[in-house]
Every structure is written in structure tokens, then in C-alpha cells.
Design brief:
heterotrimer; A mainly alpha (623); B mainly alpha (100); C mainly alpha (173); B: 100 residues; mainly alpha; Helix Hairpins; C: 173 residues; Four Helix Bundle (Hemerythrin (Met), subunit A); 2 domains; 7 helices; globular
């Protein structure tokens, strides 16, 4: 079997085995299969990567011809070039690490096998997404990861809150997918093919039958749904109802980056879609800004990280919007490292505190769970952009291109992103302080049982923290130049290149200092701030009340329409009414007609007489 | 009015009167007699036509109608007798067992 | 003399026709069934007279013989058999009097309209046929009809026996 197919199939095999027979195999076997197969996929990916570096040419494998319509045939084909290589390494690598982490995290859970089955299923679909050659295969993976996300968010479905969160994620995704589909239709209509490499070359070669911006906007709507940008970001915070490894894998490192990957892959199209690119950049900026403002007041450790993810994804879309596709993928990589580390660290904290997730009830944990603390701290430094950690490099590149790119960079854009970077540093260090530093605010029972997590968890944390620390030195943008060339930067801005680096460092440090200042000691200052800015605080705590807006704007009218129009009027009155009405009509007409059978002979003869009279008259009329 | 026209009009009138009689009268025997009246009207018209055409066809048909009318009465009267014995009345309004 | 006889013929015809009409109206109108039977008998006899005036004497004979002599006699027997104090005698007319009369008028009008001018003016004396011609054609051309009538009569006999026997059989049991 061909190597790429093997990479994709192995997790599927894991899903089938663990899904069908997992409960009978016992935890050890399930763990071995569930983690071993993704690790195997990773190993194959590494070898394919080295092969790619040697030969330097992209690899295409056709797995199966799905359908032939006329002259066009739709195949399931896998495509491995530099961009796919980076994404696949991230997916399999970090995926394997999180699988190993889950062995420790889900040990007490009764549905251990089901969890690993779903995780493997997710890996299978994600690999289809990043390795797919055509938009069709990518879409299958797109939908599939949405399904896996739904299954995993609602993993503990006995609690209806979790099931509801899973539903919300899936449905919001679907709304975005409608846009994706329309984009696909437009592309196929214009180009007759859905192969990504062919689409790119078609757009690069010259003008195409369809407006690139139109397609770009529609595909971006799909990305909005999948990557939680405004206005379809509402599902990601609720998705924290799932187990923490799920949040780390799906909602930090991989699934939510699918939108970024898609746009980066279609850079040929977006290079010729300036309007769409502007939209992408500003939606990303707005999302980053507003998510950061909400993250400042969140009190659940995972919710802070969720909004942080939304915000960081916004950064990536800003990079995509100004044409710096390689930089966006670079930030994707570093974000995967430090965000996964942060989520898994949060999981470790939750595990240590026997399920407590409210940071107001934490504190003073630094000495008690040191490994978790130090890995969390390194990852926090990375996300805040402190050099030489990885986040500094990628974020700085984004700020630079936001300012200076010839394809939409502006001072305004950079200013928004700079403020967001400041807020990012602030709320992340706030999280670090409230969770680990200061006096303990824990319940006594919880405090008594605080313990460090097992090695299967802390080991992964250490690996990820190391990657978060040094990952910035991987030259991704340079690596992806052949596929996604970096945009030219304005001459006028060249003078600001170095000062910008200083600004980025200053923002990170300022955030650290501010957080340390505000959240020191007995937390009287935050309390005073909250009281003086209570209106703003309420707005931010309520997440700008977007969920309520959607509910009133969309859900209530839809519900009303379903109930009043379709159920009452349509179904009951129209259909049932028609059927019942017809039956009643038959009954009534039967009753009326039965009156003719009066049994009265006189009436019968009268009718004969009238009939014969009419027959006579008719015969005259018709000769 | 010439003979033929007169007789045909009479035949038509007898037929119509007979039919009206069946509808109007409440006595089953009288209804039977009105049916006989109708048959007589038809007979008259046939005889008139036969008289005009000069062939024997009409006369043969009239004779056949005599036979049929006789047979019909021979059966209808016993039926009426049965009905009357059952319902104890000659009023057709009572014979509504088949009312739908 | 010829003209007088012809005139007499016509006069008689008119009288007989008119009387037949009166008789038929009486059939419908009279209250007691016995009187209705008498009116019908008179109508039939007048019709017989009309037939005779038309020249078909044997048909006239048959009319009186069969219709009056068999059919109406049978009817009279039955009328005498059944109770005269029957309530049907009291209420002469059914509920459908008015629609019946209206329908009858309509029908009559329609039929008159249909037969109007059907037969041309009688100018020539049509060939008369007598009993001999009738018998010959009856047994030559229309022999099938003749045989069928005998079948019909047989069927009628059997049927009436069946009706009476069945009823009395049930009563005895």
C-alpha cells in the first residue's frame, strides 16, 4: 500500500478496533492500539518528509476513483508537498502526544475505549483534510472533523449541557460549511476541477471565469465556521465541555486550524482576490481583539484558553489576509505547541484539583505541582511573545506584515493587533498568577488532595514546553516560500522593522508586569477595578451577549416558524387537514348521495321521468 | 289535425299521464294500472305507425307487447300480494326496506 | 255517402280519442281503486275502437280480449281481494304530486315536440292488411319472436307458481 494512504488509514484502523472491540480488550490494549497507530503514522510521515526533502517534488497518490461523470472523474487522491508535510507532522506529532497524555487523563473513565476510538477517528479525518488533493476530499475531512468534534465535545453526554455544546459546535460548523460548498460549486463551475494544485495554477495563470474574491469570500465563510471567527465563533467556548485532551487536540492544535490551512493552500486564489483578503484580514483582527477583551474577565481556566485560541486564530487570519501565508502557518505551528501545552497543563491542574476549573478557587499551586507550573509558565511566555520563545518569532512576523505588507498592511491593522498582543500577554499572565501564584484560595478538601500528575501526562507537558520554547527557530516561512511566497513589504515601512521587534517585546513584558501588579497579594485591586468598571465588566463577562443575540435573532424566529407555520399550519392544518378533509368529503358526499336511495318508488319514477325528458332534450341538441 | 298527428298526440298524452300516475298515486295497484296505461299509449303509437307504413311489422310488435304485458301482470300481481301480506298496506311508502 | 262515411269515421275517431283521454285522466284522478279499474277498462275499450277505425280489426280484438278480458279482470279480482278500508285509499296522492305533474307536463311537451311532423300528411290510403297477412308474416318472418313469446309465457307461469308456492310453503312451516 502506498505510504500516504497508510498514514491516513492507520488511525481509521485504530478507530474500528477500539470502537468495535475496545470494551473487551481492556485499557492497556486499547491504549497501545490507540496511541501506537498514530505514532506509527507519525513515523511514516517523518520518513515521507525526508523523502520530500531529498527529491524535492510533491507526491501524489490516487487511492480510489470515486465517481466518473461524463468526462470528469472524481478521485480520492492524496497530495504531499511542503505545506501538507508541515500540517501532517503537526497533526500526527502533536496528536500522538495528546493520545499518550489521554492515557493518564482518562484512566478513571468508564468509556476509555470509546474515547480513543473517537480520537483516532478524528485523526483519520484530519489527515484526509490536510492530505487531500481535491477540495472534495478536503471537504470530506472537513465534515468528518466536525463530526468527531461533536462526538468528543459531547463525550460525557449524560449531562445535557455537554450534548448541547456538541450540537452547537456541529450546527455552527454546518452554517459555515454552506459557504464552503457554494465556493466549491463556483470553482467547479468555472474551472471544471476541484484539485487544489490545479485550482492554484489556474488562478496564477490568468483571469478565470469566476471572480476570485467571490469564491474567496464563500470559502472564508466556511473557514469562519471551522476556525471560530466572528460571527461563527460562538461554539468554541462552549466546546470546553469536552474532556481537556479534546480541547487541546481539536480546539487548539488541529481542527480549528483547518480554515487557516485551507486559505494557505489556496494562496493562488487569494493572491488574486484582494477584496476577500481584506475581509479575511479585518475579520481576523476584529475577532482577535474582541476575543482578547472577553478573555480578560473569564473565570474558568479552560474558557480563558478557549477565547485565547479564538484570538490567536484571528492573528493567523490577519497574516493570511495580508498575503503572508507562510507566516500564518508558522504561527499555526507555534500556536499548536504552546496552546496544546497550555490546555494539557490546564488539564493537569484540573486533575490535580480533582475537577475544579474556577481560577478564583485556585492559587498557590506553583510549589505543589512544579512540573505543571513550569511547563505552563513557559507556554504562557511563548504566547505572550517573550523572546526567545516560539511565540515571539511568529507573532512578531505577523505584526510586521500587518504593518508593511503591500497586500493590505496598514498602521491601523498593526495597531489593533498590537493592542491585542498586549491584552494577550495580560490575560495569560493573569491566568498564570491566579492559578499558580499567591495565597491558596482552594477548598480545604481539594487542597488536601493536590498531587502532581502521572508521568504519561507530565512527560508530554515537558515535550510540548520544550517545543514551545525552541519551536520558533524552525524556519517555516522560509521553508514554505516555494509554495507560498511572502509578500513584498512597503519601502516606506522598512525603517520600522527593527523598532517593531522592540515594540513586540515591550508589549509582552508590559502585559507580564501589569498582570503581576494587578493580581498580586490579596486581590483587592481586581475587585476594586471590577466594581468601578462594572458595566464594562458585565459586557465582557457576557461575551458581548452574542449568544443571546443569536438566540433572539435566529433561534426564536426559527422556532416560531417551525412551530407555528410548519407544525400548526403546514403539517396539522394543511396535510392532516387535507387528508381528513378528503375523508370527510367522501363521507359527506356519500351521505348526501345516499339520500337518493330513499326507498320511495315515487321518487325513483320521477327521476326516470326527468331523466328521459333530459335525454330527449339532449338528443335534439345533438341531432 | 290529421289522424296520425292526433293519434300520436293521444299516445304521447296517455304515456305521460300514465307516468305521472305512477308518481302521484299512493296505491300500489293503481300504480300498476297506470303502468298498463303507459303500455297502451305505446301500443297506440305503434299501431299508428303500422297503419302508416302498411307493413306488418308494427302489428307484430303490438302483439308481442300484448304478450309481454300479460306475462308482466301475471307476475307483478303475486309480488304485490306478497308485499301486501308482509306489510299489511298498499302504500308504497312502507316498502322502504332497501333504503340507503 | 262516401264523404258522409268518411266524416263519420273521423268524428268517431275524435270521439273515441277524446274519451280515451278522459278515461286516462280519470285513471289518475279517481279515489277508489275499483273505479280506477273501471276507467282503465273504458280507456282500453275506446282504444280498441280506435284500432278498429284504423282498420286493424284483429289488433282491436286482441286489445279487448287480452287486455280487458285477462289483464284487467285479474286486476279487478285482486282489488276485490284486498281490504278496501286500507289507509292508502284515504290518501290519494303521494308527496310528489307537484313535481310529478310538472315533470309530466315537461315530458309531454318534449314528446309532442318529438313526434311533431313525424308522419307526413296522409294523402293516400295505405294498404290495409288483414289477419291473414298478419298471421303469415308472423309465422314466416317473425317466427323467432313467436317462439320466444311462448318461452316468455312459460317463464311467467313458472315464476308465478314459484312466488306463490314459496310464500305459502314458508307460511305452513
Amino acid at each position: 500500500m502506498q505510504a500516504l494512504t497508510l498514514i491516513v488509514i492507520l488511525p481509521l484502523v485504530g478507530f474500528l478496533i477500539n470502537g468495535l472491540a475496545g470494551n473487551k480488550l481492556g485499557q492497556k490494549a486499547v491504549a497501545v492500539i490507540g496511541c501506537g497507530l498514530p505514532i506509527l503514522s507519525f513515523a511514516i510521515t517523518v520518513s515521507m518528509f525526508m523523502l520530500l526533502m531529498q527529491t524535492g517534488e510533491a507526491r501524489i497518490e490516487t487511492v480510489y476513483t470515486w465517481a466518473t461523470v461524463g468526462e470528469t472523474s472524481f478521485e480520492i487522491a492524496l497530495y504531499f508537498d511542503r505545506l501538507s508535510a508541515v500540517m501532517t507532522l503537526i497533526v500526527t506529532g502533536i496528536g500522538s502526544l495528546i493520545h499518550i497524555y489521554s492515557i493518564g487523563y482518562m484512566k478513571e473513565d468508564a468509556s476509555f475505549a470509546r474515547f480513543f476510538a473517537y480520537l483516532n477517528l478524528f485523526l483519520f479525518f484530519m489527515l484526509l483534510l490536510v492530505l487531500g488533493r481535491s477540495l472534495l476530499v478536503m471537504f470530506v475531512g472537513w465534515e468528518g472533523v466536525g463530526l468527531a468534534s461533536y462526538l468528543l465535545i459531547g463525550f460525557w453526554f449524560e449531562d445535557p449541557v455537554n450534548a448541547k455544546a456538541g450540537k452547537k459546535a456541529f450546527i455552527t460548523n454546518r452554517v459555515g460549511d454552506a459557504g464552503f460548498l457554494i465556493g466549491m460549486f463556483l470553482l467547479y463551475n468555472a474551472l471544471g476541477t476541484l484539485d487544489l494544485d490545479r485550482i492554484n495554477s489556474a488562478f496564477l495563470a490568468g483571469p478565470v471565469a469566476v471572480s476570485a474574491s467571490l469564491v474567496g469570500v464563500f470559502l472564508f465563510i466556511g473557514a469562519t465556521g471551522k476556525s471560530a471567527q466572528i460571527p461563527l465563533h460562538v461554539w468554541l467556548p462552549d466546546a470546553m465541555a469536552g474532556p481537556t485532551p479534546v480541547s487541546a487536540l481539536i480546539h487548539a492544535a488541529t481542527m480549528v486550524t483547518a480554515g487557516v490551512y485551507m486559505i494557505a493552500r489556496l494562496n493562488g486564489l487569494y493572491l488574486h482576490a484582494p477584496e476577500a483578503s481584506t475581509l479575511v484580514a479585518w475579520v481576523g483582527a476584529a475577532t482577535a481583539f474582541f476575543a482578547a477583551t472577553v478573555a480578560i474577565v473569564q473565570t474558568d481556566i479552560k474558557k480563558v484558553l478557549a477565547y485565547s485560541t479564538v484570538s490567536q486564530l484571528g492573528f493567523m487570519f490577519v497574516a493570511l489576509g495580508v498575503g503572508a501565508y507562510g507566516v500564518a502557518v508558522f504561527h499555526l505551528l507555534t500556536h499548536a505547541f504552546f496552546k496544546a501545552c497550555l490546555f494539557l497543563g490546564a488539564g493537569s491542574v484540573i486533575h490535580a484539583l480533582s475537577g475544579e476549573q474556577d481560577i478564583r478557587k485556585m492559587g498557590g499551586l506553583a510549589k505543589r505541582i512544579p512540573v505543571t507550573f513550569w511547563t505552563f509558565a513557559i507556554a504562557t511566555g511563548a504566547i505572550a511573545g517573550l523572546p526567545p520563545l516560539s511565540g515571539f518569532f511568529s507573532k512578531d512576523e505577523i505584526l510586521w506584515f500587518a504593518l508593511a505588507s503591500e497586500r493590505g498592511g496598514s498602521v491601523a491593522l498593526m495597531a489593533v493587533m498590537a493592542v491585542t498582543a498586549l491584552m494577550t500577554a495580560f490575560y495569560m499572565f493573569r491566568l498564570l498568577w491566579l492559578t499558580f501564584m499567591g495565597a491558596s484560595r482552594m477548598d480545604h478538601e481539594v487542597e488536601h488532595h493536590v498531587h502532581e500528575s502521572p508521568f504519561s501526562m507530565t512527560g508530554v507537558l515537558m515535550v510540548l514546553a520544550a517545543l514551545a520554547a525552541v519551536g520558533g527557530f524552525i524556519p517555516i516561512p522560509h521553508f514554505l516560500e516555494p509554495i507560498a511566497p511572502l509578500p513584498k513589504t512597503l519601502e516606506s515601512m522598512q525603517a520600522y522593522h527593527v523598532p517593531l521587534i522592540g515594540l513586540a517585546i515591550a508589549l509582552g513584558v508590559a502585559g507580564l508586569v501589569a498582570a503581576a501588579f494587578v493580581y498580586r497579594g490579596d486581590l483587592a485591586l481586581p475587585k476594586r477595578l471590577r466594581e468601578s468598571f462594572s458595566g464594562l465588566h458585565a459586557l465582557l463577562s457576557g461575551k458581548y451577549f452574542i449568544d443571546e443575540l443569536y438566540e433572539n435573532l435566529i433561534q426564536r424566529p426559527l422556532h416560531w416558524i417551525s412551530e407555528k407555520v410548519f407544525l400548526n399550519f403546514g403539517d396539522r392544518r394543511l396535510f392532516d387537514g387535507t387528508l381528513n378533509g378528503m375523508a370527510r368529503l367522501a363521507n359527506a358526499s356519500g351521505g348526501v348521495l345516499a339520500r337518493v336511495q330513499t326507498g320511495s318508488l315515487h321518487l325513483y319514477i320521477l327521476l326516470v321521468m326527468i331523466g328521459s325528458f333530459l335525454a330527449l332534450v339532449w338528443s335534439w341538441a345533438h341531432g | 289535425m290529421d289522424k296520425a298527428q292526433l293519434l300520436l298526440s293521444l299516445a304521447v298524452a296517455m304515456f305521460a299521464i300514465g307516468m305521472v300516475g305512477v308518481i302521484i298515486r299512493r296505491n300500489v295497484l293503481v300504480m300498476l294500472m297506470c303502468m298498463e296505461l303507459m303500455l297502451n299509449g305505446v301500443n297506440l303509437s305503434l299501431v299508428t305507425f303500422a297503419h302508416q307504413s302498411g307493413t306488418t311489422v308494427g302489428a307484430v310488435l303490438v302483439f308481442l307487447i300484448f304478450v309481454v304485458a300479460t306475462a308482466e301482470i301475471a307476475i307483478a300481481i303475486p309480488i304485490v300480494l306478497m308485499l301486501v301480506k308482509r306489510k299489511q298496506t298498499l302504500d308504497p311508502a312502507a316498502y322502504t326496506d332497501l333504503k340507503g | 255517402m262516401e264523404a258522409f262515411l268518411a266524416g263519420l269515421d273521423s268524428l268517431l275517431l275524435y270521439i273515441f280519442a277524446f274519451s280515451a283521454l278522459i278515461g286516462s285522466i280519470l285513471v289518475v284522478v279517481l279515489r277508489q281503486p275499483m273505479r280506477v279499474a273501471t276507467a282503465l277498462i273504458s280507456t282500453m275499450i275506446f282504444l280498441g275502437g280506435v284500432y278498429g277505425l284504423l282498420g286493424v280489426h284483429f289488433i282491436a280484438a286482441f286489445q279487448v280480449l287480452i287486455y280487458v278480458g285477462a289483464v284487467m279482470v285479474f286486476m279487478v279480482y285482486v282489488i276485490m281481494l284486498l281490504d278496501p278500508r286500507d289507509p292508502a285509499v284515504k290518501t290519494r296522492f303521494s308527496p310528489l304530486v307537484v313535481p310529478g305533474i310538472i315533470g309530466g307536463l315537461l315530458l309531454a311537451w318534449a314528446l309532442v315536440h318529438a313526434v311533431h311532423g313525424l308522419l307526413g300528411n296522409v294523402t293516400s290510403t295505405p294498404a290495409r292488411f288483414g289477419l291473414k297477412e298478419f298471421a303469415v308474416s308472423f309465422l314466416n318472418e317473425y317466427w323467432l319472436h313467436f317462439e320466444l313469446t311462448s318461452v316468455l309465457l312459460l317463464a311467467a307461469v313458472v315464476a308465478s307458481l314459484a312466488v306463490i308456492k314459496g310464500a305459502s310453503g314458508r307460511n305452513r312451516g
